[in-house]
Write a structure and sequence with these properties.
Number of helices: 25
Structural class: mainly alpha
CATH superfamily of the domain at 430-436 and 463-575: Homeodomain-like
CATH class of the domain at 430-436 and 463-575: Mainly Alpha
Largest sheet: none
Helix content: over 70%
Strand content: under 5%
CATH architecture of the domain at 430-436 and 463-575: Orthogonal Bundle
Distance between the termini: 14 Å
Shape: elongated
Order of helices and strands: HHHHHHHHHHHHHHHHHHHHHHHHH
Number of strands: 0
Length: 577
């Protein structure tokens, strides 16, 4: 008992020490507005200098400028946007996600869920993306943010589309579009334009040309509204028109309307976006469908004519080379087409090798980062311990001594009380046995007197009849041990005495202390349990409870404690001391 108490006290003191260590101080803020350890500066450099940004975050965290969740949030931003390491970004997001203090604040929670949706989708974990978006929708609604709600709905739609659930995906996309179309905030319009564009891409993939054209025409009207109502850079508007015109040119060719297709192709070429490195290849599908292979080659020459060995290793680059190969093949330039085929094969092999290398590098990076995190945590813990250890050691030792003394003293007092109570219970049981014997002698004497008075009509009072019936009940209970049956009911007792419910209640009320059949049966069962606890040390508490007619061990312990003021185990220990 003393050893157990000591362990509990030491465990509590250890928890107290950890708590004091964790809450030793509140983070301080930098006083210099130009400090390199501020949130603003780190966000400013995280794209161009991600490794330096991570170093600044670590130092700022060590100096107490950032809390744990703030440092992890910044690391997630750097790994996602600066290093494009989505696995590490998600790892830091999940750390924050597990903190109740963050999840219970709607504004922080919705921001975190938005980031986690984007990372999950980028990793191809579409189920996780759906889960986080579903969790984020009611939070966005509670904050009154229809733009954010629409983004969550669209995330679900895109993820379901990737999972092959096209019907459900389209329903969510339509809901997201409807949500943003109703939004009064003009900041929702760029999001809506992006949604329309994504819908068009999915519809093109599924060969739903007419529907894609319908969405495209709606997007055209929306971009004109953005240009008129929103303070957006002209370059953004030009880019939006460029993407739209190239898609519409391709769609109208597929629909058979060559005139409109050519018109949108001409509109595309009027945009500045068409001459940019990002937009120059947007008309390749249109050129291919209209058999303008020379133009395809012209575009590909500008984009993909690189010296051997300097190819950009990417899937989009391979797709461009395939367009180039198709154009040469259609024009009968088989030698050039064969050269491009070989080039494509080499790049695809390189992609496979790079994928394997990237996986190995990611594992190595994760390992190094974990080591770094551990070192940071150890350094922080060491600093915290040094700050508080000297001031709290004496207090902890004093508390330990007081708690141990109180525990020892309490156990001694409880042990003495239990011994006294057991002796009193034993005396009470002895008195009860003597009382039962005396009642039996009185009953026999009463029977003898009645036999001597045979033939004399004597009126028996009702309470005397009730007493006699109760004695009969006591005799049946003692001989047949009916109270040991867990399912013994009131009806069973009534049947034994051949009396009604009201009469039984009157008998129990007049002849027992509790005045209740359940209390009467419980007392009989507990008396039997006391006997077993004294005489059968080999029985478990569960076995004694079941043998006494109480099937539920928790109910048995509660009833025992209510009656005797101690648990069955404490009673057994006191009896056998």
């Amino acid at each position: 008992m003393k050893k157990k108490c000591t362990e509990l006290v030491l465990g509590g003191l250890f928890c107290l020490l950890i708590s004091c260590t964790y809450h030793h101080s509140t983070p301080i803020q930098g006083t210099d507005s130009d400090s390199i350890y501020t949130l603003e500066y780190i966000v400013k450099i995280h794209i161009k200098e991600p490794q330096r940004a991570l170093g600044l975050i670590d130092t700022a965290f060590m100096r107490g400028f950032f809390r744990d969740y703030q440092a992890d949030e910044l690391r997630a931003v750097v790994y996602q946007a600066g290093l494009n390491d989505l696995h590490r970004a998600m790892e830091y997001c999940l750390r924050i996600y597990q903190l109740d203090s963050i999840r219970l604040i709607p504004s922080r929670n919705v921001s975190l869920l938005r980031r986690m949706c984007g990372i999950s989708y980028g990793l191809g974990n579409y189920g996780d993306c759906i889960r986080y978006a579903t969790e984020g929708i009611p939070v966005a609604q509670s904050l009154g943010k229809p733009n954010t709600e629409g983004l969550f709905l669209f995330d679900i739609g895109q993820s379901m589309m990737r999972l092959g659930q096209k019907k459900e995906a389209w329903e969510y996309m339509e809901r997201s579009v409807a949500t943003l179309e109703k939004a009064e905030d003009t900041r929702a319009l760029p999001y809506l334009s992006y949604f329309y564009g994504t819908q068009m891409s999915f519809l093109i993939e599924n060969k739903e040309i007419a529907k894609a054209i319908e969405v495209g025409e709606k997007r055209k009207e929306l971009i004109a509204r953005i240009e008129k109502e929103c303070r957006t850079p002209q370059q953004y508007v030009d880019q939006q028109y460029g993407y739209l015109y190239s898609k519409l040119a391709y769609l109208y060719v597929l629909s058979g309307d060559r005139q409109k297709a050519d018109g949108y192709a001409a509109d595309f070429l009027k945009t500045e976006f068409s001459q940019s490195s990002e937009g120059i290849s947007e008309l390749l599908n249109y050129y291919k469908e209209t058999s303008q292979y020379q133009k395809m080659i012209g575009v590909c020459n500008k984009m993909y004519l690189l010296p051997q060995g300097q190819d950009t290793i990417s899937l989009s680059f391979v797709a461009g080379l395939q367009h180039w190969e198709t154009a040469h093949e259609k024009l009968g330039n088989m030698k050039a087409a064969l050269t491009l085929q070989k080039r494509i094969g080499v790049i695809e092999d390189s992609l496979f090798q790079r994928e394997r290398q990237d996986k190995a590098l990611k594992l190595a990076t994760i390992y190094r980062t974990h080591e770094k995190d551990i070192q940071l945590k150890e350094s922080e813990a060491k600093l915290q311990r040094n700050r508080i250890l000297g001031g709290t050691l004496a207090g902890l030792l004093l508390i330990m001594g007081v708690l141990l003394w109180n525990s020892y003293r309490h156990s001694r007092i409880a042990s003495r009380k239990n011994k006294v109570l057991v002796r009193q219970l034993n005396k009470l049981d002895s008195c009860q046995a003597q009382l039962n014997a005396a009642n039996e002698r009185i009953r026999l004497l009463s029977v003898r007197v009645k036999q001597e008075r045979v033939g004399e009509p004597v009126a028996t009072p009702e309470n005397e009849i009730n007493r006699q019936l109760f004695e009969r009940l006591e005799s049946i209970m003692e001989k047949e041990k009916l109270y040991l049956q867990p399912k013994l009911s009131r009806e069973d007792v009534m049947q034994c005495l051949h009396i009604g419910k009201a009469r039984l209640a009157q008998i129990i009320q007049e002849n027992t202390e509790g005045g209740n059949l359940n209390i009467y049966l419980t007392n009989l069962r507990l008396n039997h349990a006391l006997h077993l606890l004294r005489t059968r040390p080999d029985y478990t508490i569960q076995a004694i409870a079941e043998d006494s007619g109480i099937a539920n061990i928790r109910t048995f312990q509660r009833l025992f404690k209510e009656r005797l003021g101690m648990t069955p185990m404490e009673y057994r220990r006191a009896v056998h001391l």
